[in-house]
Automatic annotation (TrEMBL):
Example of a GO cellular component annotation carried by this entry: axon
Pfam families listed in its UniProt record: fn3, I-set, Ig_3
Fibronectin type-III domain mapped to chain residues: 468-566, 571-665, 670-777, 781-877, 879-973
Protein name per UniProt: L1 cell adhesion molecule, paralog a
Location (main, coarse): membrane
Molecular function per GO: cell-cell adhesion mediator activity
Region (Disordered): 550-581, 758-780
PROSITE patterns, alphabetized: FN3 (PS50853), IG_LIKE (PS50835)
InterPro entries assigned: FN3_dom, FN3_sf, Ig-like_dom, Ig-like_dom_sf, Ig-like_fold, Ig_I-set, Ig_sub, Ig_sub2
Biased composition (Polar residues): 553-564
Organism, scientific name: Oncorhynchus mykiss
Compartments where found: Cell membrane
A single BP term in Gene Ontology: axon guidance
Keywords: Cell adhesion, Cell membrane, Disulfide bond, Glycoprotein, Immunoglobulin domain, Membrane, Repeat, Signal, Transmembrane, Transmembrane helix
Length: 1044
C-alpha cells in the first residue's frame, strides 16, 4: 500500500535487467587497447567488477582493456546480467578474444580517457543519493590514477576509491560535496586529466517541525515549520486539510516566515494543522495537533525523591507537570542565577558540574498555587585513582605488575576494576597464567612481544567511573661488538634491538689529564661513522651502545691514531685589558686547550698599538701564557690589542682587535661650580659642573658628595661647636650633575664638598667647602614622660625636653583623653607656652578611668612628634587588709596583699612584752606596698601585745592647719603570744618537734586620713587560733580561753 507523506518517483521502482547490446568475438594485435561491449539496463544498475588495474568493467557494462597482452587470449568471455531481488541471471553466448602477437616493436603510449570521453563532464544528483565518478584510461605502461578536488580539500571520510582508483564513490552525497573534481592519469609517456562538475540538489527536508501541544483559551500558539532543499522549497499551511489562504480571513491567524501564529485561541481552534514544503524534486507534509482545553495543574513527579550523584557530574531533579494552561514551574530566581543551573522546558532542574555545596533540599512549586514537591540532592566524592598504572619497560620473559589503587566514597557500591589492553577487555587466564587479578593489581607473566601495548584500568561504581592507563614496552639488552679502524667504525649488534644509540668515545694518549670523553653520538641504524679530529693529537677510540635498559660494556679500544700537525684553526678568546697600575698595559686572554694547539712550539703572539698616536704600526711580541705586560704607556690610554695563536706550522687566522686601556690613576681635579639650594628644613639640592674627562685618568664612575654636620644652630660658637658631629657620603652616576639629598637635621650647620672618583680612588675635594644652615623644623618627641598621681582626681606629668628640638623651642602641646572601648572620647588640649616648664598637674580627672596622654614640643615651624603614655590616678591609701601571721620561736612573720592603684601608707609595728612589764617598742618604718615583714628579737615563752601606728597621708586640701598627722588605731588585733619555755622544752623532749601558731587578720576597718590614732589589743594563744580569728573579725580581745 502507498504510505502517506511519501513522494514516489518512477526511478524508485525496481526493473529486471535487460541486455541491450550483444558482445561479439574480436581479434586484436598485442598491446592495443580495446573494449568488449555488453550494455544492460535495469534498476538497480549492474554492478561493476574489476579484474586488475589494466582491465576494468565500466558502469555501462562494457569491459575496458588499457592494453591487451597474451594473457587476455581467451574464448570464454561471457556477459551476465544479474537481478538480485528475483535471483535471476541473464547470460549470452560466450565470445572469444584473440590476441595476435606482432613482430613489430611495441611502442609505449601516453594515457587517454576511455570513459568518460573528452576533458569535462557534468553530473546532477540529489542529496542522500549515491554518485560514482569513473576514470577509465588506456595507455602503455598502465597509467596510475589520482583524484583531487579543485575547489577544496577532498574528504577521505565522505568518499571511497575503488577499482584501482578508477572509481570515486559518494555513498550519501550532501550539498557540501558539490564542486569540481579532477582525475589525473599518469605514466612515463605523459598525463591526461578529466574534470567533473558535480551539482547537488535536494528534495525538501525538515529542519524544524511543529510540535503538537495542549493550550488553554486565550493563549498564543506559535507553530514553527522550517524546511530546506535545493532549490529552496515553498512552505504552505492547511487546517483540517483546507489551505489557510482559502479559509475565512481571521486576524488572529498570521503566517510569518513559515511560522503559523494563532492569538487568543478559543475551543474552535482545536484542529489538525498541516505544514507542506514543495520544490521541483518533491513534496513533504507534517501534521500537528492543537487541542484547546482547560485542565487543572498537576505535578506528576513523586514527592520526597533523593537524587544521588558524584562530584563533577550532571544532576537532574525532575518536576514533570501537566495542565492547561501549561503550569509555570518556580524554583527560585536566586537559584537560577547560577550559570550551572538550568530550568528545562519539562520542569526538570538541571545542575552541571555539581559540588558538595549543591547538597540539600530543593523545592519545585507551581506559580499561583500551593502545589509543590521536595527533592533532596546528595553529592558523593568522585572516584579518584590514587596510584595509576605506569609506563613499564621490561625484558622478554619477565613478569610485570600494574597497580590501580583508587579512592571510592564509602556510600558507593564496592568498585569493580576492569582491565583492558589496547581497548580490549582482559579476562583472567587460569590455564596459561598470563593474566592474574589480585585486588587492585594486574599481573602479566612471561611478557613477550604480543604483550606490548596500552593497559587501562577502569574503576567502576554504580554512579561513576575513573580510568588511568599505563603501557608495556619490550626492550632488549645489547651486547656490542665494535672494531675501530682509522677513523671509520664498523658496528654490529647481537641480538638486534629497537634502534639503540651508539656513543663514540676517545682518549688522548699523550696527556693523562683527561679520561675517556664522548666524541659523537650515532643512530643505532648506522654501521659506520666519520669523525672530525683535531690535528696533532694521538687518539684511541671505543664505542658504547645505549638503550632504555642502560649502557653496554665498551668495545675494545682501537689502536693508537696520531693526526698530523697543522697551523692553528682558532685564536684565544676573551682578549682584554686588566690593567690596574698606572703607566702599565696588562693584556690577558683565556688560555687555549692543549688539544687545539694543532702542532709543536705553540705560542701566543700579542699585538698592541695606541688608538691615537701610533699610526698603522703594530707592536708585537710572543709569549707562552697570559698575561703580557707592557710598561711606560701612560695613564689610561686607549690601545687596540689582539692575540694570535702560532705554532711550528704557521699562524692562526687573523684576529679582530679589541679596545683596552692602560692602568688608571686617581683623578687630578675636583668638580667646579658646586652649589646648594635649600628645599626645606631636611632636604637640599646639590649641583656641580661636570669635570673634564681627560683629568679623570680612568673610567669615570661618578661623583661623591661629602656632607658633614657641625651641630645645631642653637649651640654657642665655640670650639666644640666647630667639631663635626656626623657625616655622610652619597655616590652618584657618571653623567649626573645634580642630586637631591634628604634626611638632614633641621636647624643645623653643615659643610659640603664634592669629589670625582674612578676605580683607583677619589680626586681632590671641591674647594673651599660649601657651608650652609638648614631652617627650623618641627621638634622631635620629648625624651621622657612620667606620670604621678598625688590624689584620686589629679595627675602630675613630668617630662624632659626633646633631644632634637630642631629649632628654638617655644613650648609644648598636651592632649589627653579617656580610654574607652569605642575610642571616641573627646580630646582635651592644654597649651604650654613656657618652654622651660617640665611638669604639669591636671585636676578634676575621673578616678575610675584610664587616660592616654600625648605631649609634643613646639617651634615656630610647628608641632613635633608626640610621646605617648597611658595611666590612671592613684586612689587614697588604706591600711593593709587580710594580714596573715606566722609565729616562730623568736619572731613573727606578717604578710598582706597591697591594694591595687592605692597610694602607699607608712606604718610601724609596736609590741609590748607583758611578762617582764617593760616598755612599748616599735619596728622601723614600714610601707603598705611591702606585702611582708618579719618582727625579730622576741623572747621565747613570752606573751606580747602588738599594735600598729599609721601615718595619715597628705590630703592636699586648701584648708588651713597641718597637712600631715599621726593616728594610732587598732587595725586588726593584738596578738597574744604565749610561748612557755618549759612547755616548749617539754614538747621538744616528748615529741621531738615544735609547734608554730598562725592567725590571719580579716576585715580591718578603714580609717580616714583625718582620724585620730586608735588601738585595740588582741592576745592569741597557739592552741586557740580558730577562735581568735573569729574574735579578730568581731574586733574583740582573745587570749588563752579568757576575754578582757
Amino acid at each position: 500500500r502507498l504510505l502517506p507523506d511519501t513522494v514516489y518517483v518512477a526511478r524508485a521502482f525496481k526493473k529486471p535487467p535487460v541486455i541491450t547490446t550483444q558482445p561479439e568475438s574480436i581479434t586484436v594485435f598485442g598491446a592495443e587497447d580495446i573494449l568488449l561491449t555488453c550494455e544492460a539496463s535495469g534498476n538497480p544498475p549492474p554492478e561493476l567488477v574489476t579484474l586488475n588495474d589494466r582491465v576494468t568493467q565500466g558502469r555501462d557494462g562494457n569491459l575496458y582493456f588499457s592494453h591487451v597482452t597474451a594473457d587476455d587470449n581467451r574464448n570464454d568471455y561471457t556477459c551476465n546480467a544479474q537481478y538480485l531481488s528475483a535471483r535471476t541471471i541473464l547470460s549470452k553466448e560466450p565470445i572469444s578474444l584473440t590476441v595476435t602477437i606482432s613482430n613489430s616493436v611495441v611502442r609505449n603510449r601516453r594515457p587517454q580517457m576511455m570513459r568518460p570521453s573528452g576533458a569535462h563532464s557534468t553530473y546532477h544528483t540529489l542529496r542522500g543519493q549515491s554518485l560514482e565518478l569513473e576514470c577509465i584510461v588506456q595507455g602503455l605502461p598502465t597509467p596510475t590514477v589520482q583524484w583531487v578536488r579543485r575547489d577544496g580539500q577532498l574528504s577521505e571520510s565522505r568518499t571511497l576509491r575503488d577499482l584501482s582508483d578508477r572509481l570515486l564513490r559518494f555513498s550519501n552525497i550532501s550539498e557540501s560535496d558539490g564542486g569540481e573534481y579532477q582525475c589525473s592519469a599518469n605514466n612515463s609517456q605523459g598525463t591526461v586529466t578529466h574534470i567533473y562538475t558535480v551539482s547537488v540538489e535536494a528534495a525538501p527536508y525538515w529542519t524544524k517541525e511543529p510540535v503538537s501541544q495542549l493550550y488553554a483559551p486565550g493563549e498564543t500558539v506559535r507553530l514553527d515549520c522550517q524546511a530546506d532543499g535545493i532549490p529552496s522549497p515553498a512552505v504552505a499551511w492547511s487546517m483540517n486539510g483546507n489551505p489557510i489562504t482559502g479559509i475565512d480571513l481571521d486576524p488572529r491567524r498570521i503566517v510569518r516566515d513559515g511560522a503559523l501564529i494563532l492569538r487568543d485561541v478559543v475551543f474552535t481552534d482545536t484542529a489538525v494543522y498541516q505544514c507542506q514544503a514543495h520544490n521541483k524534486h518533491g513534496t513533504i507534509l507534517v501534521n500537528t495537533y492543537i487541542f484547546v482545553i482547560e485542565l487543572p495543574p498537576q505535578i506528576l513527579s513523586a514527592d520526597g525523591q533523593t537524587y544521588t550523584v558524584t562530584e563533577g557530574q550532571k544532576a537532574g531533579l525532575h518536576c514533570q507537570t501537566f495542565g492547561s494552561p501549561r503550569p509555570k514551574v518556580d524554583n527560585g530566581a536566586s537559584l537560577l542565577a547560577d550559570p550551572r543551573v538550568n530550568l528545562l522546558t519539562n520542569g526538570s532542574l538541571q545542575i552541571t558540574n555539581v559540588s558538595h555545596d549543591d547538597e540539600g533540599l530543593y523545592t519545585c512549586s507551581i506559580s499561583n498555587t500551593n502545589m509543590s514537591i521536595n527533592a533532596e540532592l546528595e553529592v558523593l566524592n568522585r572516584t579518584v585513582i590514587l596510584s595509576p598504572p605506569g609506563d613499564l619497560r621490561v625484558r622478554p620473559g619477565k613478569t610485570v605488575i600494574f597497580t590501580c589503587l583508587a579512592q571510592v566514597d564509602s556510600k558507593l557500591t564496592p568498585p569493580h576494576i576492569q582491565w583492558r589492553r589496547s581497548g580490549q577487555k582482559l579476562m583472567q587466564s587460569y590455564a596459561e597464567d598470563k593474566y592474574t587479578f589480585e585486588g587492585p593489581d594486574l599481573i602479566v607473566a612471561n611478557v613477550q612481544t604480543e604483550d606490548e601495548g596500552v593497559y587501562t584500568c577502569e574503576v567502576i561504581t554504580n554512579l561513576d567511573m575513573a580510568e588511568a592507563s599505563g603501557s608495556i614496552t619490550l626492550v632488549v639488552a645489547l651486547t656490542l661488538m665494535a672494531d675501530a679502524l682509522s677513523l671509520s667504525l664498523s658496528l654490529s649488534l647481537s641480538p638486534p634491538s629497537f634502534s639503540p644509540e651508539f656513543r663514540v668515545e676517545f682518549k688522548d694518549h699523550v696527556s693523562n689529564e683527561w679520561g675517556w670523553e664522548e666524541l659523537k653520538r650515532v643512530s643505532g641504524t648506522e654501521k659506520s661513522v666519520n669523525l672530525a679530529l683535531q690535528p696533532y693529537v694521538s687518539y684511541r677510540f671505543r664505542v658504547i651502545s645505549v638503550n632504555d635498559i642502560g649502557k653496554s660494556d665498551p668495545s675494545t679500544p682501537s689502536d693508537l691514531h696520531s693526526t698530523p700537525p697543522q697551523a692553528p684553526d682558532n685564536n684565544p678568546e676573551d682578549v682584554r685589558s686588566e690593567s690596574t697600575e698606572p703607566d702599565t698595559l696588562v693584556i690577558t686572554w683565556e688560555e687555549m686547550d692543549r688539544r687545539v694547539f694543532n702542532g709543536p712550539e705553540f705560542q701566543y703572539k700579542v699585538f698592541w698599538r695606541r688608538v691615537v698616536g701610533d699610526g698603522p704600526t703594530w707592536h708585537s711580541n710572543v709569549t707562552t701564557e697570559p698575561p703580557y705586560i707592557v710598561t711606560e704607556v701612560g695613564n689610561f690610554s686607549a690601545f687596540e690589542i689582539k692575540v694570535q695563536a702560532v705554532n711550528q706550522k704557521g699562524e692562526g687566522p687573523e684576529p679582530d682587535p679589541v679596545i683596552g686601556y692602560s692602568g688608571e690613576n686617581v683623578p687630578l681635579e675636583a668638580p667646579m661650580d658646586v652649589g646648594v639650594v635649600l628645599l626645606n628644613s631636611t632636604a637640599i639640592r646639590v649641583t656641580w659642573a661636570a669635570v673634564d674627562r681627560d683629568t679623570v685618568r680612568g673610567h669615570l664612575l661618578g661623583y661623591k658628595i661629602h656632607l658633614t654636620r657641625f651641630g645645631s644652630r642653637g649651640h654657642h660658637r665655640g670650639r666644640r661647636a666647630r667639631e663635626p658631629e656626623s657625616s655622610m657620603v652619597v655616590e652618584t652616576g657618571a653623567n649626573e650633575e645634580k642630586r637631591v639629598l634628604g634626611g638632614l637635621r633641621p636647624y643645623s650647620h653643615y659643610a659640603l664638598t664634592v669629589t670625582v672618583f674612578n676605580s683607583k680612588g677619589e680626586g681632590p675635594p671641591s674647594d673651599p667647602p660649601l657651608s650652609f644652615s638648614t631652617d627650623e623644623g618641627a621638634p622631635g618627641p620629648p625624651m621622657s614622660l612620667h606620670l604621678e598621681s598625688p590624689a584620686e582626681t589629679e595627675m602630675t606629668l613630668h617630662w624632659t625636653p626633646p633631644a632634637q628640638p630642631n629649632g628654638v623651642l617655644k613650648g609644648y602641646l598636651l592632649q589627653y583623653q579617656q580610654i574607652v572601648e569605642s575610642d571616641d572620647s573627646p580630646v582635651q588640649v592644654e597649651t604650654i607656652d613656657d618652654h622651660t616648664l617640665t611638669k604639669l598637674t591636671l585636676k578634676q580627672l575621673d578616678p575610675k578611668s584610664r587616660y592616654r596622654f600625648y605631649l609634643r614640643g613646639r617651634t615656630s615651624a610647628g608641632d613635633g612628634e608626640p610621646i605617648t603614655r597611658e595611666g590612671a590616678t592613684t586612689l587614697d591609701g588604706a591600711p593593709p587588709s587580710n594580714i596573715s601571721l606566722s609565729v616562730g620561736e623568736k619572731c613573727v612573720n606578717l604578710s598582706w596583699v597591697p591594694g591595687q592603684r592605692h597610694r602607699s601608707v607608712g606604718f610601724q609595728v609596736q609590741y609590748l612584752n607583758k611578762n617582764n612589764g617593760g616598755k612599748w617598742k616599735q619596728s622601723e618604718k614600714l610601707n603598705s606596698s611591702q606585702s611582708f615583714y618579719q618582727l625579730k628579737g622576741l623572747t621565747p615563752g613570752s606573751q606580747y601585745r602588738l599594735r600598729f601606728t599609721f601615718t595619715s597621708p597628705d590630703t592636699h586640701t586648701p584648708s588651713s592647719g597641718p597637712t600631715a598627722g599621726w593616728f594610732i588605731g587598732l587595725v586588726s588585733a593584738i596578738v597574744l603570744l604565749l610561748l612557755v619555755l618549759l612547755i616548749l622544752c617539754f614538747i621538744k623532749r616528748s615529741k621531738g618537734g615544735k609547734y608554730s601558731g598562725s592567725s590571719k587578720y580579716s576585715n580591718m576597718h578603714q580609717t580616714s586620713t583625718r582620724q585620730t590614732t586608735k588601738s585595740k589589743y588582741v592576745s592569741i594563744d597557739y592552741s586557740d587560733t580558730l577562735k581568735c580569728n573569729e574574735a579578730i573579725r568581731k574586733e574583740e580581745v582573745c587570749s588563752i580561753g579568757k576575754r578582757y
